[in-house]
Structure formats: C-alpha cells, structure tokens
Amino acid sequence: MFNPATEEQIGEVRLGNAEDAKKAIAAARRAFPAMRRTTPSERVVLLHRLRDAVLADRDRLIAAMSEEYGAPQSFITASIAHAAQVFDEAAKTAASFAFTRQIGTTEVVMEPVGVAAAITPWNSDISFICTKLATALAAGTSIVIKPSEMSAIQTQAIVETLHGAGLPRGVLNVVNGYGQVVGEELSHNPGIAKISFTGSTATGRAILRGASESFKRVTLELGGKGPQIVLDDANLDEALPHIVTSAFRNSGQACIAGTRVLIPESRKAEILPRLAEAFAAVQVGAADDPSVGVGPMVSAKQWERVQSYIQLAQDEGAAVLVGGAGRPEGIERGWFVRPTVFVDVTNDMRIAREEVFGPVVSVISYRDEDEAIALANDTDYGLQAYILGSDENRMRRIAKELISGRVVLNEAAPDAQAPFGGFKHSGIGREFGAFGLEAFLEPKAIIG
Q1: Which residues belong to the active site?
Q2: pTM score of the predicted model
Q3: What are the tens digits of pLDDT across the range 246-265?
C-alpha cells in the first residue's frame, strides 16, 4: 500500500481467501433470521446509530482517505458526509416504505431476498461500504462486503467506526481480498442471495455470469462515459465552472464524470478559448491543499493507464488543447497527471468511447440539437449525463431523449432519494431511496 501523492509505502494488507469468504458467509447466514424478524422501526434506530458513529469519527475517516487515496479535500469531506447521510436516508426510506400492502384479498409482504454480498471499488471506499450496508440493513438482511484491497486503511477505519456502533454479531462481515478469489466465492456461493457491485463493466459482466448459476439477484453499477451537452443558449460564465467540476470530479476517477463535452459548432470559436482557460486553471496537488482540484491517480498502474490514453488520443488524430503527457510542471513524485483536454475528437475514437478514469476530456462539436442527442446516446454506456443551457423546458425535453440513468441540469444538487444506476453497459438495477431498497426485497403474496 502506497501514498499516491508521495509513492511511499504506508502499510501492508493481509488478503483473505475463499475459506475466509465462506466463514463470513456462514456468519451472515447465522445472523440473517434475527435480522429478518426485525421491525422497520428497530432498523431505523440501528441506522441512526451508524450515522452518528460516522459523524463522530469524521476527522479520522478523512485522514485515512487523504493518506491512502489522496483525492481533493473537497471530495474527501463530501464523501465522508455522504457516508453518514446514506444511513440517515436509508432510515427515512425504511420508515416510510410499505413493507406490507393489500391488493384485493391478497396481502403482499416485501421481505429480504436473503443474505447479501457487496463488492466495492477504491474510488470512494468508505462511502460505498456505507451505502451497501445501509440498504441491506434497511431491508432487514445481513451482508458480506469485499472492499478493494487497494483501500485497506480506509476499510479498517470505517469498520472500526461501524463496529463501535454496536451492530448485532454477524450482520456485517468484511473480507479483504482479490476479486478473482474472494469476489469469485461471493459470486458463486449458494449461501448468497443478492449481490450489489460497483466497479468496472468487465468485472460486472463476470459477476453476472457467476451469479446466474444460483439465480442471485444482482445490482450492478458500472462504468460511464458521460456526455455534457452545452446548448447554444448556455451562459458560459455560469456553465464553465460546472463543466470543469463534472469532468474532473474525484480527479476524473469517477464513473459519473462528464468526460465528453459536446459543444455547438456555431459557438466553437467562442467556447474553445474559454474552455482552455477554465481547464488550465485547475490546480493539481495533494489532499492537504484546499485549492487543489485534481489529486493523484490511485496507483502507478492507473497513472500508466491514463498516460496510455493520452498518447492514444494523439495517435488517433486528436489535438491537445490543455495538458498532455507526463506529470504537471514542478511535480516530480507522486502519481499526478496533467489535466488534459482534447479537441478535434470524433465520437468513433477510442478516447471518446472508452472509460479512461482520469482527468482526460474529449471536446466534440455538433451541428444541431438532434446531432447533440445522437452523439450523447452513441455510447455503450448510459450512467449520468449533463445538460447546460438557459431554457429549462428545452433542457427537460432533451433530457427525456437521453439514454441515461441520470441527467443533471446545470449541475443541480443531487437528490439523496433519487435512483442511481445505468442503462446499457453502465449496469443493472438502481441504488438509493425506495428503488434501491426494493432491489434487496422480494414480494410474497399471501392469498385468501
């Protein structure tokens, strides 16, 4: 384990194996009957305890994420706040959800599908663990979580925090380990009834195949290649900060990053210099500097991946507007990337179609509204899209044409109860609110 800002080793992680996963599944199965019998009000009390525990440990969790992951300070503080919020929102959902419904003479009972498993990524470890746990608890089930082995310090910190909240024994089980070992066991073991996964599309495809053997229910939140449609009536003074924020969210290491910026041909000469100025102003550095907008890549491997895409884009004929290969000027250590923007990009280039997972943006021109919609939808992904303009009715009309799980208008603040998930290769199912809760439940009809 290394600090990505300094490349210094900061620890070692002991990896679990398939036997460890089996033991965790057995513990979760022992805890399941008691959890299944809890009432929604009892689960609300437990969720509130977990929320309070995360808030009380806020500073320690921020420190762990800063050292091990190194994202910009604004993202880290927001992530820890979100980790507490998901428990609060899950409690609200559980309190208002109709677990029992009457349809004619039939009583329909929504009950937990069975023991859940979650596999979480490294780009917001604490937040993802809390999100999966909160939903499982709201549904009344126990869970086994395999976090990324690249986030072991953060995992240790959040598990200690959650343990201090007094979770019933066996309800939360965490196994560090490789996906091809621990993840494979969770995907195939018949003791798991539900899998919730956040990560790459390739891994999601493998999990789906493994889960199908025992008819596991799955929620897959996968990759994205989000378009940002800048309409011809957009106010650039207002839009530019939103464009930069969406493109470089979490240093670009985010499935929801808006990495394809679609601009109207009619305003290209005006927009490109403004884009260059806005993106060039983004500061790169370590998490302890509040002015930083882009932190280091998580690992040397990820740094090399981003560098390879920067070279590939130029090989394909794209031109560098901002940035380029290598580290930013004045930085000699750490896995830092120069925030890079490409122009002269066409939507058939790999740089426009594949998820880079770094601060790399493609600018693509369109002639009219219909072509903007067609370009936005011409992708294997469909997770989160963005529209920037001045006419709300027009933006909403265009939003309904986009094949995307979420469409954000002018960087509006997120709604904590809104469903999150994708179309096409961006996944299956939804998280958050009632939609996320239902993914952990099955309806039972009692007729008569």
Answers
A1: 221, 255
A2: 0.97
A3: 999 999 999 999 999 999 99
